Amino acid sequence: MNQNHREAMADVRDMYMAHTMFRREFSLLPQLVRDVTPGDTTRAEVVGAHAEMLCSILHLHLHLHHEGEDLLLWPRLTQRGGAQAAAIVPIMEEQHHAIEKAHAAVLALLPQWRRTGHGGGQLAAEFEQLRSALIEHMALEESEILPLAERHITASEWMQLGEHGMSAAPKKQLPLAFGLAMYEGDPEVIKAVLAHAPLPARLLMPIIAPRFFANHARRVHGTATPPRIGVGAR
């Protein structure tokens, strides 16, 4: 790879922070669903809205971040990372399809359960499948792709990938979504992520995002401090 050796390389800690959030939230979801008394539509609506929000964030990650990987990451990694990158990229793409299939299965069941409070056992089982596919994918990404990115992708190229992933994110969803990530996030990583945001976001997000998350967690989990998972944090 011909490049100025003084050029900063990718800081991939933002991806570890996102992975920790996905691991925690999708690990807690199956039991949240199972704990809803059949027919309790009030509680099913609360948990269902939470599940739909998480699925929406995951959808953006699947279709924008993964699209960005196809456009901006895989070509560079296969060109610069040699046989190791060439071997792992097809596996990553297969795993993307497995996640999309599990995600679609959840979305097929969620609306009816949310309205009626019935069928929670099957929905929880589908969430377990989604969680399993996600964790397998993220573990491989952390063991293979992120170390390659640190060696072969520049900081500006990595930032391009992040900007692509954020391009269509609903602005109203950002404070809660960032609060979800901040809950177990390293303060230094949070600061690095916000360094590229507009000034109002840099000033306000550290204040409002945790409040959005705490209020949401009280409603969903009954506490502002749901169980932390810590896996994948760095």
Question: In words, what does this structure look like?
Answer:
- The chain has about 230 residues and is mainly alpha-helical.
- The protein has a domain of about 160 residues: nmb1532 protein domain like (Four Helix Bundle (Hemerythrin (Met), subunit A)).
- The chain is about 80% helix and about 0% strand.
What structural keywords apply?
234 residues; mainly alpha; 0% strand; globular; Hemerythrin domain-containing protein; Hemerythrin-like
Secondary structure layout plus pairing:
Elements lengths: L12 H22 L6 H40 L1 H35 L3 H33 L2 H12 L7 H9 L4 H8 L4 H23 L13
Helix pairs in contact: 1-2, 1-4, 2-3, 2-5, 3-4, 6-8
Organism: Micromonospora tarensis
InterPro entries: Hemerythrin-like
Pfam families: Hemerythrin
Total number of strands: 0
Give the ordered list of helices and strands.
HHHHHHHH
Derived structural class: mainly alpha
Radius of gyration: 18 Å
Strand content: under 5%
Q: Report the principal-axis shape.
A: globular
Average pLDDT level: 89
Shape-level CATH architecture of the domain at 13-168: Up-down Bundle
* Biggest sheet layout: none
Instruction: Examine the coordinates and then state which fold CATH places here, giving the name of the CATH topology of the domain at 13-168.
Output: Four Helix Bundle (Hemerythrin (Met), subunit A)
Helix proportion: over 70%
> How large is the count of helical segments?
8
As residue ranges, the low-confidence spans are: none
Highest-level CATH class of the domain at 13-168: Mainly Alpha
CATH superfamily of the domain at 13-168: nmb1532 protein domain like
Q: End-to-end span in angstroms?
A: 27 Å
